[in-house]
Amino acid sequence: MGLRDYEQPSVTTDIVIFSIIDDDLKVLLIKRGVEPFKDQWALPGGFVRMGEALEDSARRELSEETGLENVYLEQLYTFGDVKRDPRGRVITIAYMALVDGKNIKLKASTDAKEVKWFSVKNLPKLAFDHEKILSYSLKRLRWKFEYTCVGFSLLPKKFTISSLQKIYEIVHNKEFDKRNFRKKLFSLGILKEEGMEEDVGYRPAKLYSLKCSPDKVVEII
Amino acid sequence: MGLRDYEQPSVTTDIVIFSIIDDDLKVLLIKRGVEPFKDQWALPGGFVRMGEALEDSARRELSEETGLENVYLEQLYTFGDVKRDPRGRVITIAYMALVDGKNIKLKASTDAKEVKWFSVKNLPKLAFDHEKILSYSLKRLRWKFEYTCVGFSLLPKKFTISSLQKIYEIVHNKEFDKRNFRKKLFSLGILKEEGMEEDVGYRPAKLYSLKCSPDKVVEII
DNA sequence: ACAAAAGTGTTGAGAGTACACCCATGC
DNA sequence: GCATGGGTGTACTCTCAACACTTTTGT
Q1: Quick check: B10 and A7 CB within 8 A?
Q2: pLDDT confidence band for A109 (50 / 70 / 90)
Q3: Whole-number pLDDT of residue B105
Q4: Known catalytic residues of B?
Q5: What is the band of A106 on the pLDDT scale with cuts at 50, 70, 90?
Q6: How far is B141 from chain A (nearest CA, A)?
Q7: CA triplet A133, A137, A143: central angle to 5 degrees?
Q8: Are B47 and B10 a contacting pair, CB within 8 Å?
Q9: Which of A129, A151, A215, B211 lies 20 to 30 Å from A178, alpha-carbon distance?
Q10: Residues B171, B220: contact at Cβ < 8 Å?
Q11: Which residues contact A45 (CB under 8 A, 6 or more apart)?
């Protein structure tokens, strides 16, 4: 029996890009330039090309909106409700990316009139089932923060302990004790010393980098 | 721009059905009755129908092979390598089901010549990328066992503490201390008393049921 | 009385939590 | 010398791990 004996749905990838900007957890949204949902905010995404692996499709979207490559990217979940797209049956594979917010220049792409960071505390109404996708990603993000090193991906390669602590405080929306946070991190043996900060207007902090993969399972908090 | 302006891949669901039978972790495989990979073992699966939600497709496969409904089912991951199917571009959404091994009558379905439980320690060569899918599921299974109540889904509604402990020992392939295991479980407050075993040839044990959802996050071990 | 599995407590070690002060630098 | 964030130690609590014997039932 051949493949064409079955009707085929369309397949897209959508990508939830998180970053920390101005001490706030933000997500990147685009304003749609085409129907359906023209002029509404939505997650960046697009059709998977025939010869393109799923992750490559997500990376392509990511790069089109942010110009970034080599960032942390993980497949989240596949959403395939029959009526999630008014054009017909469209199944979407959602990805989550974590990027270092500094040094990103946003560029509006072909399908998007506008590209903007939104605080997760203050989101607009979203197209399709993107609210569902986003709320799922937020759960996953918080959860992965506790059990893995993914949080480090929101920072530059070399970072200070207190910048890392701030990231954790923002994502979990609560404060941690400085001494306990440092003690825990050092005890995990995942940090490598990388010299000192320079040219800051106060006592320079030590810089560290991550020795292990961001996916490594460790209980950070 | 319409959906048909893009070539469309085919979409299937595959399902990894785990059970504990004869004190061993088993997975259900079918022997394929059609090309490609005719006569090779594979995970049960099939094309997603146009008006069918993804999870419904997986439940349909599950029911076709085992006759079971209302079992624990979770979406795992979506595999979409360009060359994973020799017929063309086929993206598959993998699901994992956990079933109580007793009282299952297997039935060969239309696409399958044979249906059989295999020990995860002794698997045959599998069709497509099903070895990758299976190895991913095993990781996820062990991991979910530690952090959630999913393990209970491998048992009947009412179970004894020692049958539960045995499940955990089989999945993690190591032994646990009886007193510590019981203490931990009781301290979680997720068990409800359900009377006693009857007609066993030794001291009857108390029966319990699970008060919470199998997905509830608790550190069991 | 014996076989088979059920059920039960204590102790020691290690991890987590709470808590406050001095230090290095730039201006 | 002062403002800014960097860096450090201790005591208490709680959880986890190790460990062996008595109880109940059927035969």
Answers
A1: no
A2: low
A3: 75
A4: 114
A5: confident
A6: 15
A7: 150
A8: yes
A9: A215
A10: no
A11: A12, A13, A14, A15, A61, A92
Mean pLDDT of chain A: 92
Query: Can you give the distance from the CA of residue A198 to the C1' of nucleotide D7 in angstroms?
Result: 17
pLDDT of amino acid B146? 86
Q: For A71, phi and psi rounded to 5 degrees?
A: -105, 170
Is the preceding peptide bond at A36 cis, omega within 30 degrees of 0?
A: yes
Please state whether strand D lies within 7 Å of residue A158 at its CB atom.
no
Q: Give the residue-averaged pLDDT of B190-215.
A: 92
Residue A117 vs residues A22, A92, A145, A173: alpha-carbon distances, Å: 11, 22, 21, 19
A114 catalytic? Reply is yes
Which bases in strand D are touched by protein, i.e. have an atom under 7 Å from a CB?
3-10, 16-20, 23-27
- For the cut 60, the answer to whether the pLDDT of residue A103 exceeds it is yes
Give tens-digit pLDDT for B4-44.
666 789 999 999 999 999 889 999 999 998 989 999 999 99
Q: What is the pTM of this model?
A: 0.93
Full DSSP string of chain B: --GGGS---EEEEEEEEEEEETTEEEEEEEEE-SSSSTTSEE--EEEPPTT--HHHHHHHHHHHHH---S-EEEEEEEE--TTSSTTS-EEEEEEEEEE-STT------TTEEEEEEEETTSPPPBSTTHHHHHHHHHHHHHHHHHHBSGGGGGS-SSB-HHHHHHHHHHHHTS---HHHHHHHHHHHT-EEEEEE--S-SSPPPEEEEE-S-TT-B----
**Tens digits of residue pLDDT in A15-58:** 999 999 988 999 999 999 898 999 999 999 999 999 999 999 99
- Residue B160: count other Cβ atoms within 10 Å of its Cβ: 18
